[in-house]
Amino acid sequence: MRTAYVLTALVLGTATAGAQDTVTLKWDLKEGTTFYTKGVTDMDMEMAFAGKSIGMKMKITAVQKLKVLEAKPGATKVEMTMLGMEMTAEADGLPGGIPGLADIGNRVKGATITATLDDKLAVTKLEGYDKFLDKIADGDEAVKKQMKAQFSEATVGQMFSQVFAFAPDKAVKVGDTWTRTDKVPAGGLEATAKQKYKLDSVSGGVAKIALTGDLVFKVGDGIPGLPDGVKVEKFDMKAEKFDGTLLFDTKAGRLTENKLDMTLNGAITIAAGGQKVEMTMKIKAKQTATVTDKNPMKD
User: Fold this and answer.
1) How many CB atoms lie within 10 A of CB 262?
2) Which of 57, 89, 135, 253 has CA atoms 20 to 30 A from the CA of 29?
3) What pTM does this model have?
């Protein structure tokens, strides 16, 4: 009799363990749910050309409110509102920083755009894109044209994808890996990010995911804001380092933290008036994004 109990316990224990071995990392988006994201990016840049070296440090802090307007199969609508953005920069030879950054942050505040997500939480449609640009441009058509180049629909869509569409299509267990490739045009450049994720551990309802990858840039339709006659002939930037960590609350069905550490190296060639200037650049960037139920600007 005791042996039967032991065997039963072993069978039940094995079945339970097997069921707990896999976890689903997909967001659980319920209609009416509101949450907030806060992203902080610190960048340290070094540029060298014509025997001179210039350094610049920049910090960007952005807070967004996301609200699930509709939750339908294959068509979940999420509204994103920019609650605030702060940008600071210090550059060699510019003790007062770079002018105009505060204005951008003020114009962005209150800008709203809505994305429709498919079953894989990838963006299939954006609504309110023109109004989003109008809010940022504040009635200035020249600024709107520049912002449209820097914040293309693909770039704005990527703001949603980075939050939602990182998970695999199926349940995974510790040690499993999956990949994702994103191509995003931004500011006249095209960035290709190849990412590999690995489920490192699951403890206390929190899944820890390791991220490694590569990031490559190439010149697209031209970089906006350059003077007439100035052209970027070469923009060869690659990632020397691309590592990160994500934390996912498996009980709530929500990403809670996303950290990324990057080092980019490369060379740029600018042509103007029949002459070419070659520049080398190194960028170190650290990004941290957190997701919470409370507004980080108030609570």
Assistant:
1) 19
2) 135
3) 0.82
